Amino acid sequence: MYIKRRDFIKTGALGAILPGSILDINNRLSVDHMSLASSWKFEDQIVIDGLIISRGWDEDSFDALTKSGYTGFNTSLDSTNLKSALSSLEDWRNRIKNKANRLIHATSGKDFITAKKENKVGVMFGFQNATMIEQAIDNLDILYAAGTRWIQLTYNERNLLGDGCTERTNAGLSDFGIEAVARMNELGIIVDLSHCGRETTNDGIKFSKTGASLNHTMCEALYKDHPRAKTDKQIRSMADKGGVMGVICLGYMIGPDPGGKTTLQRYIDHIDHAVKVGGIDHVGVASDFAIQGLQADGATRENWYEPRLTMFKPSYQVRWPPWIPELDSPERHKYISGALEKRGYKAEEIEKILGRNWLRYFNETLKS
Parallel, antiparallel, or unpaired for β 48-49 and 72-77? Predict the structure, then answer.
């Protein structure tokens, strides 16, 4: 049963929910269908972003975070080596300690519920490359103890675990990579495959006992020949094991419309396709840029676009500007929800895409 926003606030339902009652809060945190079309109220919702990264966290960033209405997000830390990773984890723990009135370190799904109840934002720590485990599987235990809860097996290039998406060859997971996945499963660290090559993605889904995530990616069926895109078979296999695909909000990753500009509708096309292939319970949102948006975060042709022309191979098809205007804002979920409603999605389906699917996934994958 769904509780309308006015009744939800009137009865004080959120305050009555027990911290561990995940099903209860999932059933109650809803809004009436009309509010999706006009004035979506994020304070009534679980809103989780698969990936928020930033050039720096200043007061403007925190103000944007408050404005966004987010319940929580995953963030990406320095994966250069174990030392830099642990230093980066410590920096984030200190940031949360210094902003205890605004932030919570999220290591399980329940922490996002706590963040919601306390009007704070949950932050989950992760890495977009597994290079920081170096050559020792035991380093995963150290990283877990320091707060790590998700790791992408590779970035674009090959590492000791497997091949990235722009690697010339297309090998799958190495023996070391399979061992790492097994240990991540045992600890309760999410196996992410967003930047992994095709066979490494296939192996990651296959060898992970828990559902792997495609944390921030897009559909190959809609953007042909882009190395970061995932096939229908991969999306379906991921969903069959309980994973979630976060559709990336970067415009140049979504691909141009026929007119040459990437639009919000093209973004919704990717969500729509992922839902049709993987199911409504296995699709979410992942920005892959700062909470305030790329422009507000200071992205320019000189400091953002031009470095990526040498950082990434031509197959990445980096374009300028890289953003979709409606999504380059702290309130991007407002536009996503409205566009989804116009596509015919029901209120409960939109709620799943905006955050409840991530919450379900965290509850099933992470150790309490």
Answer: parallel
